[in-house]
User: What shape does this take?
Amino acid sequence: MIPLWLRIRVEEGGRSRLSLPIPLFLAWLLLTALLLLLLPLVLLAGLLSWPWGWGRTIILAYFQVFVLIGSLSGLKLDIESREQDKITRIVMQ
Amino acid sequence: MSEEKRKILEMLAEKKITVDDAERLLAAVSEPAAAGGARGPKYLRVLVEPAPGNKEGDRVNVRVPLNLVRAGLKFASFIPAQVRDKVNSELKEKGVPFDLSHFNPQDVEALLVHLNDLTVEVEGKENVRVFCE
Assistant: This one.
C-alpha cells in the first residue's frame, strides 16, 4: 500500500504549532505521470547500455522505484528537542 | 532470543519451575509466532534517548518499514558484475570483507525474518536501541 498522506506535526511547549497533512497521492500522480513519460527513455538507455552491463541495472532500478514508493508507508520519525521543548513528528501513512 | 524465553530459562535455572513447565511455557510463547505464519517483524526501530544523568540531548524515534529496507537492499543485486568487483575490492580495502556477489534476495529475506530477535543497545552519553517489531 503506498502512503497517501505525509503528516508533519510540530509541538512546542506542549502546544501544537504546526499540523500539516500533505496529500501524497497528488504527488504520486505527478510522479507516476513523469515516470511513465520517462519509460521510453529508460528502455532506450537500457538497450543502448546493455553491452556494457548497465542495461539490466537501469531497467530494474526504474521499476524498483515503484516498489520503493510502495514501501514508504509506515515510515515515522519523531524528534524531541529537550532544549527547545519542541517535538517534530513526521509520519507517512 | 525474546524477553519471554529468557525469563522462562532464568526461572528454570533458578528452579522456580520444572523442565516440563518450561517446555510448556516455551511452546506457548512460540505459538503466536507460529500461528501468525512466517510474517516476521514489520518495522525496524531506532530509539535514541539521553542517558539518565544527561539533561541535554534530543530524543529520536525512527520507525522504518522493513519493506523499505528490503527494497533498498534489492538495489545491490542490480549492480553490474564489473562494478560489483570494484565495490568488493574497495570494501575489502576499508576492512569490510563483504562480497556483493554472494548477496541475493533470499539471503535478505532470511536476514529480515531473523531480525525479530535482534536488539542492539548502546549505552553512553545517549542510549541507542535498535530492534524490530
Q: What stands out?
A: Residues 77 and 90 of chain A are 5 Å apart (CA to CA).
